[in-house]
Design brief:
Layout (H helix, E strand, L loop, with lengths): L8 H26 L2 H33 L7 H25 L1 H11 L1 H20 L2
Helix pairs in contact: 1-2, 1-5, 2-3, 2-4, 3-4
Amino acid sequence: MTFPASDSIEDVYQRLNLSMSVLLAAGLLTFLSFRHWAMLLGFLAGGLIAVINFRILKRTIATVGEALAEGKTPASARQQAMKFILRYALLAAALYVIFKSSQVSVYGLFAGLFLPAGAVVIEAFYELYLAFRRGI
């Protein structure tokens, strides 16, 4: 059995970005329609943090992968660790500020942070659909 050529990683990345954007817009419209402002702001903050974190993670993986493929030494482990810590410090700061303002908005923040997970589920269903369509 031969498998047809699959999409490139860049195609998958673009679909994940599109899915996260659609989920973010849908969540914002949902909270806006209910006029639940605290949860809307928490969701927006969580969604933006998730999207930024996803892009930074993609860029870091691509940089390290390219360096390894070219036989070069990737950026120092210390620099990578500092980026990792900085991302989670940003998340902790946002969580602290939001938690102090309203506990309800924390629920929105966590919902926003799960945007990449939702996008991955959508991508999994899309790949499953393609597999069935191709008869694999």
